[in-house]
């Protein structure tokens, strides 16, 4: 039988910037143990059935499959989310949007909409932090919405309303204090779409036209009809899209438009306030 230390050594066969961490996460997943256990018991023998499962997952990781898809889980904010190939894998940079939303001077019982919710990451983070907010999440993908529904049922049952439809389509006649979205923003021809984890994520959740601005433009243009006077719009975007997204918000009539940087210091979230009337 192989030891924990020996199995972790398989990380050397991974072409990944996070090879050692990937190996640890996958072995923990197979063993159902925390990472600290691996280093407490490095010489522990691993059951052959568990070893076989681990080697299978490592082979799939070596073929490029994302760790989140192999484990079915991804940490985001304070939550552990289920993720599948039907959803975008939540990234730490999106937590910048959540943090900004929680700082806004919103009513105690605010109405919030998360457009293109995917796994439900943003909507559920906000709902768990602000239990009195009325949070609605939309997505055009029924499969993604099913994942968000399972996450919502496990993490905050009854707290998030899930609606199927593209962007604002399911929200006719409604208005909100805050609209947030992490829409597709990658250029359709970007070579990075054929590399790394994104190869296994839904293309519809990544690419948005020749400049990556199609969905951002649609949301900004239509947002004023769904945001209450004095309400806010926050959008995640590419690190080189800050200037055009600020222009989109100003053209739509938003004021106090500015951009925040992500954990890597890159422009990532742009927001603005609808003029009070």
TrEMBL record:
**Catalytic reactions on record:** L-glutaminyl-[peptide chain release factor] + S-adenosyl-L-methionine = N(5)-methyl-L-glutaminyl-[peptide chain release factor] + S-adenosyl-L-homocysteine + H(+)
Looking at the record, the residues that make up the Release factor glutamine methyltransferase N-terminal domain are: 16-72
GO MF term (any one): nucleic acid binding
Where does the record locate the signal sequence feature? none
Does Transferase count among this protein's keywords? yes
Which residues of this UniProt protein bind substrate?
Answer: 182-185
**Record domain Methyltransferase small: where:** 109-190
Per UniProt, the keywords (alphabetical) are: Methyltransferase, S-adenosyl-L-methionine, Transferase
- Keyword Transferase in annotation: yes
Sequence positions that bind S-adenosyl-L-methionine: 116-120, 139, 167, 182
Reported EC number(s) for this entry are: 2.1.1.297
**What's any GO biological process attached to this entry?**
methylation
Q: Which InterPro entries match?
A: DNA_methylase_N6_adenine_CS (IPR002052), HemK-like (IPR004556), N5-glutamine_MTase (IPR050320), PrmC_N (IPR040758), RF_methyltr_PrmC (IPR019874), SAM-dependent_MTases_sf (IPR029063), Small_mtfrase_dom (IPR007848)
**What job does this protein perform?**
Methylates the class 1 translation termination release factors RF1/PrfA and RF2/PrfB on the glutamine residue of the universally conserved GGQ motif.
Which protein family is named in the record?
Answer: Belongs to the protein N5-glutamine methyltransferase family. PrmC subfamily.
**NCBIfam families, per the entry:** hemK_fam (TIGR00536), RF_mod_PrmC (TIGR03534)
Q: What protein name does the entry list?
A: Release factor glutamine methyltransferase
Q: Which organism is it from?
A: Parahaliea mediterranea
Ranked from the top, the taxonomy reads: Bacteria, Pseudomonadati, Pseudomonadota, Gammaproteobacteria, Cellvibrionales
